[in-house]
Amino acid sequence: MTNLPEVNVRNILKNSKALVSLMDNIRGQSLAIVPIYTFAIPEDYQKNESNPVIRVTPVPKEDAHYADNERFLVDTFVQVDFWINKKDTSGLALMQDLIYQELHKNGYERYQPERSIDPDYTEQIMVTGLFRGRIYNEQS
Predict the structure, then answer these.
(1) What's the whole-number average pLDDT of the chain?
(2) Domain count of the chain?
(3) Is 0.70 surpassed by the pTM of this model?
(4) Per DSSP, what are the bridge partners of residue 126?
(5) What is the rounded distance in angstroms from the CA atom of residue 37 to the CA atom of residue 14?
């Protein structure tokens, strides 16, 4: 496990066979790669036919917990976004729930879900979730 929460979350989601299968089912086909990215989605995958795609980004916030003047626990925060075609949202709730379940069983808790039309891609709905995870100091 890396100390980069966005990489940890991306790897958790990429390794979920159920999530990858659901994404392929919603899309109607599998892609050459698993379209789950950190920071930016390549332009080739910003098209309706590539949806759903997932992006994981860090949230610039960190809470540390101390004991005996030693940092033993850090709360980290990430944002998980996915895009789905506005014309067929039948898999939206299932995908949102599956992302939550995968991250929850790996120590992340969602604290703010949201859905909206993406102003840059008006044919797509952007689904956002903010998650908090914990990293324990290995030396504690």
Answers:
(1) 90
(2) 1
(3) yes
(4) 83, 116
(5) 9
CATH number of the domain where residue 121 is located: 3.30.70
Residue with tokens 């004991």: 67
Write the secondary structure of 58-121 as one string of H (helix), E (strand) and C (coil): EEEEEEEEEECCEEEEEEEEEEEEEEEECCCCCCHHHHHHHHHHHHHCCCCEEEEEEEEEECCE
pLDDT in tens, 34-79: 999 999 999 988 888 899 999 999 998 777 777 778 777 788 899 9
Find the domain containing 103 and state its range: 5-136
**Identity of the amino acid at 112:** Q
- Residue 138: phi and psi, rounded to 5, are -60, -25
What's the CA gap between 137 and 140, in Å, rounded?
6
Of 128, 129, 15, 8, the closest CA to residue 74 belongs to: 8
Q: Is the C-alpha dihedral spanning 19, 21, 27, 33 positive or negative?
A: positive
Residue 20 in contact with residue 102, Cβ under 8 Å? Answer: no
Whether 96 contacts 126, CB under 8 Å: no
